[in-house]
Amino acid sequence: MEDFDYLGEGEVYLDAACQSLRPRPVIQALEEYYTKFNSCGERVKYPWGIETDRRVEATRKKVLKYLKLKGKDYFVSFTLNTTYGINLVLSQLDYSKFSRIITTDIEHNSPFLASLSYAKKYNLEREVIPRNPDGSVPLDTDFKKAVVILNCAGNFDGRRLLNIKDLISKVHKNGGIVLIDAAQAMAHSPEILCKQEPDAIFFSAHKLYAPSLGGMIVRKDLLLKIKTSFIGGGMVDDVEKESYLLSAENPEHIYTKFESGLQAWGEIIALGEAIDWISNLSKKEHKNLEENYTRLYEFLASSKKVHLVNEEANPTMSFYVEGVDSHLLGSALGDEKIMARTGYFCAHYYLDKVRNFPPLIRFSLGYHNRPEDIDKVIEKMEKIVK
């Protein structure tokens, strides 16, 4: 694809689950901000600042539209990344309104460790429930007054939370809340979140073909359970010696509830461009990605020496090769300009302690990958597995 024309000859990038490559329009949008209207949002009245405000507000609306969520129910705040957003909410969530926190065994460390910290801090019961092979969650769990925090797409095999609607419904009926780690879903599986109504969705823009940035899509009524303690510039309209007035009291500025200090205005604007870019991809480009990851998955699945974690084809696939150290394999592939991640991918508990896998190698594909990339990977891997 010409939007990734900066890739060198023979370079194959297979680490999109960590961070996707950025297409030219996104890079240009960021450059445009820095060279044409570099300014502080929400603080200035000169033309550059007005343009920044306009484009940042447009990005907030694009995020909601992307997941088919309504502005009357949700707002969008920006942070550093998914991990930061999860901790920002949990650190201010009124623990007295809940009796337990629940997560699942396949989680990335972002929700897994944050749930552990929250439970220990407030002496709450914590439960780690197993996910089904298809990614769904057993609904026979006690969700009464529970904080449920989990992903909707796995970061090592892409398995999806297929019963997300039923889960949200049951948790809400039992007086709990649902917090979704959508870091791995936003780019290639956004449909799983469309029109769903969890209490908060966290994502990382750098996995959505955008610059390094975090996003939070928060249900407005969740604020009734938030006790604001992380506070600073950009969040207040007035300050007295011993008190202050939060900007979030104004419905038009509700997003400031989680936006302390100066924001990454250029990155936010470039995220808006990334959403436009991915929303306008052709059927051919979607089909190309599907054909690429399906062909690579089928090759790996056909080898007796390759042990896949995946149950089915997905843009993200993890495996180990019998008799081959994954870190050495990753290094060897790197020497051939094939870039892939090795280790446990911040899912130590499940991959290491539950499944007892050795360190793995992960191939995670994106819209930048070409059929010739897959040809090269298969050619090099065939030599290894034979």
Tell me the layout of helices and strands:
Elements: E1 12-14, H1 24-36, H2 47-66, E2 74-79, H3 82-90, E3 100-104, H4 109-122, E4 125-129, E5 146-151, H5 164-173, E6 177-181, E7 200-204, E8 214-219, E9 236-239, E10 244-246, H6 265-279, H7 283-302, E11 306-308, E12 316-321, H8 326-335, E13 338-343, H9 348-354, E14 360-364, H10 371-385
Parallel strand pairs: 1-13, 3-4, 3-5, 5-6, 6-7
Antiparallel strand pairs: 2-8, 7-8, 9-10, 11-12, 12-14, 13-14
Helix pairs in contact: 1-6, 2-6, 3-4, 7-10
Describe, in plain words, how this protein is organized in 3D:
By secondary structure, the chain is of the alpha/beta class. It has two domains: 2-19 and 283-385, Aspartate Aminotransferase, domain 1; 37-278, Aspartate Aminotransferase, domain 2. It is 34% helix and 18% strand. It has helices at residues 24-36, 47-66, 82-90, 109-122, 164-173, 265-279, 283-302, 326-335, 348-354, 371-385; strands spanning 12-14, 74-79, 100-104, 125-129, 146-151, 177-181, 200-204, 214-219, 236-239, 244-246, 306-308, 316-321, 338-343, 360-364. The strands form three sheets. The chain has a seven-stranded mixed sheet, with helices on both faces. The protein has a five-stranded mixed sheet with strand order 1-13-14-12-11. The chain has a two-stranded antiparallel ribbon with strand order 9-10. Strand 3, helix 4 (109-122) and strand 4 (125-129) form a beta-alpha-beta unit. The protein is globular. The model has no long low-confidence stretch (mean pLDDT 97).
